[in-house]
Specification:
Layout lengths: L4 E2 L3 E11 L4 H4 L2 E5 L5 E5 L15 E2 L11 E17 L2 E13 L4 E11 L1 H12 L11 H10 L19 H19 L10 H19 L1 H4 L2 H28 L1 H8 L4 H25 L2 H16 L12 H8 L3 H19 L8 H21 L6 H32 L6 H32 L5
Helix pairs in contact: 2-10, 4-5, 4-10, 5-7, 5-13, 7-8, 7-9, 7-10, 7-14, 8-15, 9-15, 12-13, 13-14, 14-15
């Protein structure tokens, strides 16, 4: 098995039943009762609490001595199959592999399922996981079996463990915040990955792209404290994935925005229909390329690399020739509000400088303002929970409005570029019509951007 030598395997039938109240009281609290073959019951935490440190791939955790008493419970879903335990010897140390394979069952549905759990020293487990993932479609699961069973019984998608931006209010130090943010955003990406396919709608690609951008922003934000080759290598992998997500998202935005406006304005025009047909073909090609990337070993290796960062903390291993290593390492233990305020202040001043005399800005200059707004928005969103209150919410709303207006102008520029890329595949008249619509949208977006800029300057910073 992937360079590992196996000992004597032990296997047995495995049957599990998950129970809850008829109203789903335990599920609402992120819990489930699990009953084994001999009738023993235990309460499991299958969804992390909001402020709980969480590593992707963490198995459900039994609640010892703190289990709630929900009252009358009924079976919700079950697993039946086999449980195999295999001791392995790898080049980096012993690993114990537990494979559970069989069927997940509910009253009206069932489906095959498998879980592989590796236990051992960090390097041995990560090394074996990496070798397995090079050949097999293995990723940290996006939901516990109990949660998958609950979702199957209800005909739903499993609930996300994490969504949106990470909440760092409970992180006392810079390093704790970095660990929480990376773990949170890896979970977001793992959850959205299955939805990034044709026919599933644009939301999966959009949310995965946002999660990826947030994660890349986190790596940049914490670079003064945790910079180094390991994070640079991880960021390079994220950038390569972003290059695959970008075309799929760009064509989604075009067809849902400018393309939809063209279709509504000229529903019977064959030239516009030809343009939209060519655009749809490009979108499908972009999705096929993206799906091939997500199904390939590179994406699996990227997710394991991110998990490895959380387990190894390579930023603690300062190279001896790094002159500022001691200062950088000290920043890992710095109080998070001090670190956050200094960074936000620096980016705020850069945005203000870029937007000076914004009324006279060219389209290219407005694009630079948009980039600075984005560079501020992600860390402002990340650190906002440290300064809760009306001023913070007002600043975030106004910064989001500015970026949205500037983003609309950028989307218009991207749309024009996309249409031009279709070349001779569509009538020239349709290309001209699309560019005319885009120009009209750009004018309106510029007016909105100037108004949003004035509102943001009036709000001012929310951090101390």
């Amino acid at each position: 098995m992937a360079g590992a030598r196996g000992g004597r395997a032990r296997g047995a039938a495995s049957d599990l039943i998950w129970l809850d109240t008829a109203e789903g009281k335990l599920a609402a609290e992120g819990l489930a009762i699990e009953e084994g073959q001999r009738g023993q019951r235990q309460v499991l935490r299958v969804m992390p609490e909001a402020d709980q440190a969480w590593l992707p791939g963490t198995p459900p955790m039994p609640l010892d001595g703190q289990a709630p008493q929900p009252g009358h419970v009924v079976p919700i879903a079950a697993f039946s199959g086999r449980r195999s335990l295999l001791p392995l010897t790898t080049p980096l140390g012993p690993v114990q592999a537990l494979l559970r394979a069989g069927k997940l069952r509910a009253v009206a549905d069932e489906r095959p399922v498998a879980r592989l759990q590796l236990q051992g020293e960090v390097e041995a487990v990560l090394g074996l996981a990496g070798r397995l993932a090079a050949d097999l479609p293995l990723l940290p699961p996006r939901a516990a079996l109990a949660e998958e069973g609950r979702a199957l019984a209800r005909g739903e998608t499993p609930r996300p463990r994490r969504r949106g931006p990470p909440d760092l209010a409970g992180a006392a130090t810079v390093e704790r915040a970095l660990l929480a943010a990376i773990g949170h955003l890896l979970e977001v990406m793992l959850y959205q990955e299955p939805a990034c396919r044709l026919g599933a709608g644009p939301e999966g690609v959009h949310q995965m792209r946002v999660g990826l951008r947030r994660l890349r922003s986190v790596l940049k934000v914490f670079r003064p404290a945790a910079g180094g080759p390991a994070l640079r290598e991880f960021d390079a992998g994220l950038k390569a994935l972003a290059d695959r997500l970008g075309p799929a998202r760009d064509w989604d935005v075009f067809l849902g925005g400018l393309g939809a406006q063209l279709a509504e304005a000229m529903p019977e025009d064959r030239r516009i229909a030809a343009l939209l047909k060519a655009a749809e073909a490009r979108r499908q090609a972009a999705y096929v390329a993206l799906r091939a990337t997500l199904d390939g070993p590179g994406f699996r290796a990227l997710m394991l690399t991110g998990l490895g960062l959380l387990l190894r903390r390579p930023w603690r291993e300062a190279p001896p020739d790094e002159p500022e290593a001691a200062e950088r390492l000290a920043r890992l233990d710095e109080p998070l509000p001090d670190f956050a305020a200094a960074l936000l202040d620096k980016r705020w001043h850069k945005l203000c400088a870029e937007g000076e005399d914004i009324e006279a800005h060219s389209a290219a200059a407005l694009h630079e303002v948009r980039l600075e707004a984005k560079r501020l928005r992600y860390p402002a969103e990340l650190f906002a929970p440290l300064w809760p209150g009306k001023a913070t919410r007002r600043f975030q709303r106004r910064l989001a409005a500015l970026q949205e207006a500037l983003g609309l102008a950028n989307d218009t520029a991207v749309a024009r570029s996309l249409v031009a890329s279709l070349g001779g595949a569509v009538p020239a008249w349709a290309v001209g019509a699309a560019e005319g619509f885009a120009a009209a949208r750009s004018t309106a977006a510029r007016t909105e951007a100037l108004e949003a800029w004035a509102a943001l300057m009036d709000a001012g910073p929310f951090w101390d």
